[in-house]
């Protein structure tokens, strides 16, 4: 299993737009066989940081999912929410392997 961790800098004035964007990506990751662990949004105080975690069975499975970016109409529509609203200022993606309790 490989887990993708995405750290976002978001526009705190556009949380509702970010939540729409996030909901679509959670659905799309599940549709493509991944497990979405959720988006983690600011809860208290002023913050412009958010995080997403989702897993695929392997890097190859993740790479198959990535081939749909810019091609699949639902992927394009999900990215359009981000692009048109300006809710995401920037993001960074990294891959981790989980060590889970037995």
Automatic annotation (TrEMBL):
In this record, what's one Pfam family? Answer: NIPSNAP
Ranges where the NIPSNAP domain occurs: 7-98
The name this protein goes by in its record: NIPSNAP family protein
